Amino acid sequence: MLLELNDITKKFGEAEVLKGINLPLEAGEIRGLVGENGAGKSTTMNILGGIHPPSSGSMRLNGAVFAPQSPTDSLAAGIAFIHQELNLFPNLSILENLFLSHFPQKKILGIPVIDRQAARQQAQKLLQQVALDLNPATLVEELTPAQRQLLEIAKALSANPRIIIFDEPTTSLTSHETRKLFDLMARLKADNIAMIYISHNLQDVMHLCDHISVLRDGRLISDYNQAAGYHLPTIINDMVGRDIEQFFPDRNTAPGTETLLEVKSMHAEGVVHDISFTVKKKEILGFYGLVGAGRSEMARIIYGLDAFASGALYWKQQPISAPTPARWINKRVAFLTEDRREEGLLLAQPIGKNIALASLRRFVQSPLRWVARQPLQAAVSEQAEATKIKYHSLTTQPVATLSGGNQQKVVLAKWLMTKPELLIMDEPTKGIDINAKHEIYKLIHQLTEQGAGVLLISSEIEELLGLCDRILVMKQGRISAGFSKAEFDRSALLEAALHTEKQGSL
Amino acid sequence: MKTDISQAGNKLLDHSTIVLFSIILITFSVLSPQFFSLQNFINVLIQASSLAIVATGMTFVLLTAGIDLSVGSIMFVAGVVSGKMVDSGTSLGVACLVVVGVGIGYGLLNAIFIYRFKVIPFIVTLATLYVGRGFGLYLSDTRAINLPENFLSIGSARLLGIPFPIIVLGVVVTVAHLVLTRTVFGRQVYAVGNHAEKARKAGLKVNRILLSVYVICGCCAAIGGLVAMAQLGAISPSFGSQSEFMAIAAAVLGGTSLFGGKGQVFPGTLIGAITIQALQSGLVIVNADPYLYPLITGSVIFLIVLIDSFRHKEQIRRRRIKKVA
Predict the structure, then answer these.
(1) Residue-wise over A115-145: b if at least 16 C-beta within 10 A, else e?
(2) Which entry of A161, A442, B151, B245 is 20 to 30 Å from B130 by CA?
(3) What distance, in Å, lies between the first and last C-alpha atoms of chain B?
(4) DSSP letters for A28-73
(5) CA angle A91, A95, A96 (to 5 degrees)
């Protein structure tokens, strides 16, 4: 047994986050760790990674007691942790990121300086291991998300780890890049490195892992192994603690005939080309494509966050010559951005303030334009209830203290409170748990029932197939295909999104 | 055609330091032949050396996304202490060491408040700016301290024909440049400046790095003060005041970002300091109205900060497009 967690518990103040976790790990094994957000996956791994000490319980590594005091201790013991949010410095080079805490050094006149030649050689070797064909002097800010992910793995490998923890490594990767990552993991496995793989993508976990441990509410609920076969509904059941009889709720409405948004031949050099489409009342229009296909960029341009060179926008047949977010908000068009932490929330501010932000204008009283506090607060708490945010205080609790799913619900509540006629959503369920996803889907449906249209950008085919009336696929800045509900076909969607010209490399 | 122009614009932004430097050089050379002479260039370099040394220390702090407003007071306090000591018969060598010691101590004080008590650098150093100035005024009875002849003789001394201030400048800039580019500490400074929390997660000793940059800044400020004292021969009650402004301007003009993580001492900050000094010397040589100096210098500094923010906007925009292409 390489690693053993025995009855690990963890309390943060009053809250008991882990209630006795037992977890074995063998060398050369890939163990999947699944559970909803807040189930305790991250806390367990943070204890293993030396970020937090356990409240009780013990760990054994190679039979010896293992009690790391810091991430450095864990790393020294051969445990590398690849966090979901990559820990890279874009202003430094690949090489510097690889060796930041342990540069090879030499002495000149007794003064220790970086041994650049040795560093370069070691860097090249590491980059080769992860099949990253780049000059080590390249600045990280010039790398794609996938290249950064591989660099993070190379960084982990530089410490010669025996165990690597992957926390949601595929969220920013395309399917092609994900496959490359899995190939790499297979090679590491062959080198007898043990891996713990945390992901919300259960298909990936089942495909990849020798064992799957399911966590729920700080407890280890079940343990499955690949040899015995996995059963997806059972795993989901274990995760949520109840049957999700129906993951995608039923639609009670059909798209209307009145056109809300019309985009005509929109073009921005190097970003999007010849984009034309319409969104109708009560319609959910999906946008599928690989990361970097230009979907988010298109949404940003429509919303007036970025400029476009030519083309036209119409809102209910009226031309919109110079779109700005303020104008769109006035017309009750909302945009839920992909990066909720950076662009969607004031993280340090209370939940209530965040929800109120886009609707303040509706609550001002003339002539001094003071905000009417009472009605605003009433409306905010009503919206928070309707959106099912889990909180203890709207007025004092900062958004940063909420889980990812609840943070997303806050962003959603903010926009729903503006009573939008069109809601543009960019990856609304990225990195959030199944229950929260389900609730967000229901809210989307409610919105369309009230007559609004939805433009939904997503990288999850399932989600689009389950929710949308129509799906457009983007590839390299262009709309490459369109599907109506009757024509929905998973492989056709994927094909339309993939780069066809490099058949050889796939 | 349009892209040609915007590409040229990007290039211009990337090299704004050199462009501005050249503009000032050419303008004054055209206005006055006296400006365009080797002797004047050497003079500019000598006069710029104090500022450049202070700005070098400031660059370390700015790279960590911090700021040190107290450098002028450090120069003053260190100067007053050493001036008093020399007056009462202490040898020059000891006095110089004391100056550096005061600078280091002052920097340490700043650092302790910043990382130990978690007060933001702007507030801490704003407070120590005033406390330091007050302390110096108290020590000197708000009177100017005249330094003995031998102090002045350092200012005009030469080694191998090279003026002393330029030698000190050369040593400080060379050491600082090598530390930033060739040592582990130097590269980690850039990491901390990019994201302190990430740096902590990456196992860097962030507190130690922050402490070091404020100590380095204090030390450089004291050395810069020493060089200025040796040239002036006296310490007036306003000695060093507003140096923080010039030092920050020199660093930013040299391409160091106020947002941290970007910049370099050589050539960046050095050229920045020389540019500012060339501007001031040039104004003197062309007999500009002295009341206009602050206006003109201020405008140039404003322009620099404006360019810095443009540069950032450009970087952000270019990155987004790259992602798609």
Answers:
(1) bbeebeebbeebbebbebeeebeeebbebbb
(2) B151
(3) 20
(4) T-EEEEE--TTSSHHHHHHHHTTSS--SEEEEEETTEE---SSHHH
(5) 50
Angstrom distances, CA of residue B107 to CA of B55, B133, B251:
14, 15, 18
Q: How far apart are CA A327 and CA A177, in angstroms?
A: 39
| Angle, CA of A442, A444 and A448, to the nearest 5° | 115
Which residue is associated with the tokens 């609304």? A428
Judge whether residue A245 has pLDDT over 70: no
What is chain B's mean pLDDT, rounded?
Answer: 86
- Radius of gyration of chain B measured on its C-alpha atoms: 20
B234: Cβ contacts below 8 Å, ≥ 6 apart = B144, B145, B146, B147
SS3 A349: coil
Cα(A389)–Cα(A406) distance, integer angstroms: 6
Q: Chain A 72-101, CB below 8 Å of chain B: which residues?
A: 72, 75, 83, 87-92, 96, 100-101
Q: Is the pLDDT of residue A78 over 60?
A: yes
Query: pTM for the complete prediction?
Result: 0.72
Q: Which residue from A70, A90, A100 is facing B188, i.e. has the nearest CB?
A: A100
Q: Do A75 and B203 touch (CB under 8 A)?
A: yes
Instruction: Tell me the shortest Cα–Cα distance from A174 to chain B, in angstroms.
Output: 13
DSSP-derived pairing of the beta strands A3-12 and A111-114: unpaired
Task: Give me A402's structure tokens.
Answer: 């909420």
**Are B324 and A87 within 8 A, CB to CB?**
no
**Distances from the Cα of B80 to the Cαs of A186, B151, B271, in angstroms?**
68, 13, 29
Give how far Cα B160 sits from Cα of B39, B115, B164, Å: 17, 44, 10
* B120 CA: distance to closest CA in chain A (Å): 17
CB contact burial A462-486 (16+ within 10 A = b; e otherwise): ebbbbbbbbbbbbbbbebbbebeee
Strands A219-225 and A259-268: unpaired
Q: What is the mean pLDDT of residues B49-59?
A: 96
> Is B155 within 8 Å of B230 (Cβ atoms)?
yes
The token duo for B302 is 């404003």
CA gap A266, A18 in Å, rounded: 51
CA–CA distance, A506 with A260 (Å, rounded to integer) = 40
Please count the other Cβ atoms lying within 10 Å of the Cβ belonging to residue B195: 19
Neighbouring CB atoms inside 10 A of A298's CB total 29
Instruction: At A246, list the tokens.
Output: 């129906």
CA-CA distance, B197 to B205, in Å (whole number)? Answer: 11
Distance CA A303, CA A335 (A): 7
SS3 category, A422: strand
Q: Is A339 on the interface with B (CB under 8 A)?
A: no
Let me know if B183 is exposed, middle or buried by CB neighbors in 10 A (0-12, 13-18, 19+): middle
Q: What is the mean pLDDT of chain A?
A: 86
User: Position A276: which residue type?
Assistant: S
pLDDT class of A111 with cuts at 50, 70, 90: confident
CB contact under 8 A, B178 and A113: yes
CA-based max dimension of chain A: 80
Q: Are A149 and A86 in contact (CB under 8 A)?
A: yes
| CB-CB under 8 Å, B184 with A271 | no
Pairwise CB contact (< 8 Å): B198 & A89: yes
